Amino acid sequence: MKTIAFIGLGHMGLPMARNLLKAGFKLKVFDLVQAAIDELAQEGAQAASSASDAVQGADVVISMLPASRHVEGLYLGDDGLLKALKPGTLVLECSTIAPESARKVHKAATERGLEMLDAPVSGGTAGAAAGTLTFMIGGQASTLEKARPVFAAMGSHIFHAGPEGAGQVAKVCNNQVLAVQMIATAEAMALGVANGLEPAVLAEIMRQSSGGNWTLEKYNPWPGVMENAPASKGYSGGFMAELMAKDLGLAQEAAQHSGSSTPMGALALQLYRLLLKQGKGQQDFSVVQQLFVE
Ligand code: NAD
Known about the structure:
Elements: E1 3-7, H1 13-22, E2 26-30, H2 34-41, E3 46-47, H3 51-54, E4 60-63, H4 68-75, E5 90-93, H5 99-111, E6 115-118, E7 121-122, H6 124-130, E8 133-138, H7 141-152, E9 155-162, H8 166-194, H9 199-207, H10 214-218, H11 241-258, H12 263-277
Parallel strand pairs: 1-2, 1-4, 2-3, 4-5, 5-6, 8-9
Antiparallel strand pairs: 7-8
């Protein structure tokens, strides 16, 4: 069985790593937060003392970090991890980062005889826990075939989006849609409740009608409508508003690059920036609901 080094055990990385353990992979894990390493070590993973310790003897490296700067910091430069990997190692970079940044790491990895895929995910923390994530993959199709059993242990949809960086392009398009849907749902929930509707009744009517969307199915932003949604847990857990703001910024960069017109994405970014200014960046992105209530 392959040995996998897993770096970045946050909201997403920890449950993803847990599913690899359940599937029988040998795992070496590292995060800057010791408690996350300890939690997985109790479940059978080998604790590493650093990222370079984690990759010793690894056949596959998976990273799940916040943003481009963390990923470039991990892999590139004189102390970068790419220099510590044996040729033939598979690098599966699952964070959501700028397509340009992913291409930079791809190029450096290829120069060192390593195979890399950018493989951002969709499905949230619930999908990570259930092993039902969607992977959007950029890189060589032949590399994807080698990595498929690893992805299959963490997800149920595996898409080859295209060459290097294409996974990241697909991901920012998807998250722009998600943010716009979340804002539209929050706005409508507040409108209906302000006009006398019960939140759960309104949510169910819209879910079953033409306004139905993923946020109404799985992630209602109104507290108490869905027991397990972050909104019902004080907007804790889930996907942080600051990460959504980051993704919307990446979408705007991509739009700038291609000259695309993305007014909804631009507005969504402005609304998320407002939330960050209110000190809500560390809360789940459905906290956008609070922009529309007293
Ligand atoms: P998170 O902040 O909860 O986790 C990131 C982890 O990386 C943290 O535990 C942090 O300590 C660790 N880390 C940072 N730098 C490190 C380093 N140099 N070495 C080792 N560990 C390091 O974030 P998350 O919610 O798990 O998201 C991770 C990525 O997945 C982001 O790019 C995010 O945009 C994307 N994503 C998140 C969700 C979601 O619902 N949370 C869904 C899809 C995609």
